[in-house]
Amino acid sequence: MVRYSYRKFDVQGKGFLSEVGNQMDIFSMKCFLSVARYQNLSMAAKEVFISQPAMSQKINMMEKEMGVKLLKRSRHKVEMTEAGKLVQEKFTQIVADYENVMIQAQKLHAEGKNHLAIGYHGPVEWANIHQRIREFHQQYPDIEVDVHIGGWGQLTQMLLGGRIDVFFSEKREIEEIATIESVYLFRDYSAVAVSKTNPLNQYQMVAPESLNGQKIVMSNNSDAEKTLRAINIGLTEAGLDMENAKFVDKYETGIAMASAGMGVTPIPRSFKIKGHESVAYVDIDSERMYLDFVLAWQKGNDNPNIHLYKEFCQKQDWTSSEK
User: Fold this and answer.
1) 3-109 and 187-291 share one CATH topology?
2) Strand partners of residue 269
3) Signal peptide span per the entry (predicted)?
């Protein structure tokens, strides 16, 4: 992680006083700038894909480390103190300098290279992606392809930061971000992962009410709150007991618990792994629970390979991903 040293402020916010050994990371600076821009902790937290309590904790730690109050808090909004305004000015410049340096470094690194960085969320075999990327590389063997797997929120930040060129996202996670463009690929419905000793294992598809009495275990998608909310609503409307669901930090943890017979784990059908040794998959017969997958890229990214990959993806048959 790239970190910047900062200088301590006096209470009046008149300027830097002395060099200190503490370090402030770029993400924390971006969090503070988001609060300054929105003057609202909740809205700022959503912009950087963290919870409001986490945002409050970050600001409190900054104030404690600097020894000054940066915000005036009221019931409905926050305002900058004089020290806060100075911090905002300095952080804005530091973040801009960092992003410019990163872009220049990436351009130097990519000089003379034909490169495309692709991101996606899910198991390695998601939507037969490995085969699709192999086919793309066979069509364009001169393009060097990097693949990144992460959460949708994490990948969104990587896209905005220029660290990846494209990624497969759930539509709701990126549709309100003005600097991101996307193309629709397919609608994915739901299944559950169950232990092979679970009686549901004998079925290919069940009605939602067949899951009554089953303990629901699923990933909390902590960095993709919009998608999590939509999934919860869909599962609840379909009749699943989400009030007593157990949420875990990682998708893999949910699958492990399902394998151990500790519950059933709702997943998109595209997350099913053919021939999985420990779990079976049973589709849920309901159209209330779905995810819309898109290919997303950042406006202004002049990498010509983005257009090639978009055209490639649009020609692919994604219907097999929904089964």
Assistant:
1) no
2) none
3) none
Tokens of 25: 């990371």
C-alpha to C-alpha distance for 104 and 85, rounded to whole angstroms: 29
Tell me what the pLDDT averaged over the chain comes to.
83
- Domain 3-109, architecture per CATH: Orthogonal Bundle (1.10)
Helix (H, G, I), strand (E, B) or coil at 214: coil
- Dihedral, CA atoms, 278, 213, 272, 164, nearest 10 degrees? -110
Q: How confident is the model over 66-79, as pLDDT tens digits?
A: 999 999 988 778 89
Q: Which CATH architecture has domain 113-185+293-322?
A: 3-Layer(aba) Sandwich (3.40)
Give the per-residue pLDDT at 1. 29
pTM summary value:
0.63
Residues 273 and 125 sit within 8 Å (Cβ to Cβ): yes
- Pairing mode, if any, of strands 246-248 and 217-219? parallel
Burial of 241 from C-beta contacts in 10 A (0-12 / 13-18 / 19+): middle
pLDDT number for residue 46: 83
User: What is the identity of the amino acid at 36?
Assistant: A
Would you place residue 238 in the very low, low, confident or very high pLDDT band (cuts 50, 70, 90)? confident
| The pLDDT value given to residue 135 | 94
Across residues 16-36, what is the average pLDDT? 70
Q: How many Å apart are CA 205 and CA 308, to the nearest integer?
A: 37
Does domain 187-291 fall under CATH 3.90.190.20? My reply is no
Dihedral of CA 284/287/288/292: which sign?
positive
Write down the domain spans for the chain: 3-109, 113-185+293-322, 187-291
pLDDT score, position 218: 83
Residue 271, class by beta-carbon neighbours within 10 Å (0-12 exposed, 13-18 middle, 19+ buried)?
buried
* E strand segments, the chain: 3-9, 16-25, 71-73, 78-80, 115-120, 144-149, 166-170, 180-195, 205-206, 217-219, 246-248, 265-268, 279-284, 290-298
